[in-house]
Specification:
Layout lengths: L21 H14 L13 H17 L1 H4 L5 H10 L7 H14 L5 H30 L9 H11 L2 H21 L3 H17 L2 H13 L6 H19 L20 H8 L2
Helix pairs in contact: 1-9, 2-6, 4-10, 5-6, 5-10, 6-7, 6-8, 8-11, 9-10
Length: 274
């Protein structure tokens, strides 16, 4: 299986990171424990059959498109984090609620640039949910899909949404998040701060957000070539998007999702169904 040639990394300007001192970190943890003493529980939303199928379909599509990354020791953990924490077919209401609250609180103690990855992760989650809801609405209301669909219905709903630029922005945000996570995870206080927060987080109900952050930084530890990983994702996702919209440079018609066997995800989902 062949993929488009590598795209040179984009030149971008990123904000300078300012490291907090040990006293700042201590004050942060003290105030964090006090602030989270009254944790707000958010009622989860059970996914509708259509939304659950859409999430599972897209998660499977991504895992098959990027199967080589999942099977590569260097890239597997980072790729797995993306698939399990962004496109997993489950509800993220509590995690996202906690994320917004923690961001607002920590922004009083840490520089904006240090918190940028968390801010971007929340933006990606919100945007992804909005795009999925819009896609499900087109499937349900304009294509009369009750719960399950095939590749052609999926792509038709994609085009009916008419949001190509927003989809491009979704891809760009994921790439930008990877760049900033890589920069922040190199800072010496990150691991210790997350470790210190683990106990209070578990006691006070902040576990979802804590686990999300720990998995994200841990996933990047074995990633030596961040730019290569991100370029491959960008090339493939952009090629698939361009093909759906009928633009030049898209994925080939005989392998629309750039997978090893050329099969559409619903074929495997049907095989898994009880």
């Amino acid at each position: 299986m062949s993929f488009p040639p590598d795209i040179p990394p984009k030149k971008e300007t990123t904000p300078t990171l300012v490291l907090p001192g040990l006293r700042d970190a201590g004050n942060l943890m003290s105030n964090l424990r006090a602030s989270l003493a009254h944790h707000e529980m958010v009622e989860g939303k059970q996914l509708s059959p259509l939304m659950a199928y859409l999430s599972a379909w897209q998660s499977l599509r991504l895992s098959r498109t990027h199967a080589d990354l999942l099977n590569d020791p260097e890239f597997s953990q980072a790729c797995g984090f993306f698939l399990s924490d962004i496109y997993a077919p489950r509800d993220f209401s509590q995690r996202d609620h906690d994320g917004h609250r923690i961001y607002d609180f920590m922004n009083r103690f840490l520089p904006e640039a240090t918190l940028l990855p968390l801010s971007m992760a929340l933006e990606i989650n919100t945007l992804t949910q909005q795009l999925d809801l819009a896609l499900a609405e087109k499937l349900r209301n304009e294509l009369a899909v009750a719960d399950r669909f095939d590749q052609y219905q999926y792509e038709e709903a994609y085009r009916l949404c008419d949001n190509y630029d927003v989809r491009v922005r979704q891809i760009e945000l994921i790439l930008e998040l990877g760049v900033h996570l890589d920069r922040v995870r190199r800072l010496p206080f990150i691991t210790s701060t997350l470790r210190l927060a683990r106990g209070p987080a578990q006691r006070l109900g902040w576990y979802d957000m804590q686990a999300f952050l720990e998995r994200g930084f841990a996933a990047l530890k074995s990633l030596r070539r961040v730019e290569v990983f991100l370029q491959r994702i960008e090339q493939r996702e952009k090629a698939i998007l361009d093909r759906i919209y009928g633009l030049p440079g898209g994925a080939p018609a005989n392998n629309p999702f750039l997978v090893s066997d050329g099969r559409s995800p619903e074929i495997e989902l049907e095989a898994r169904a009880p």
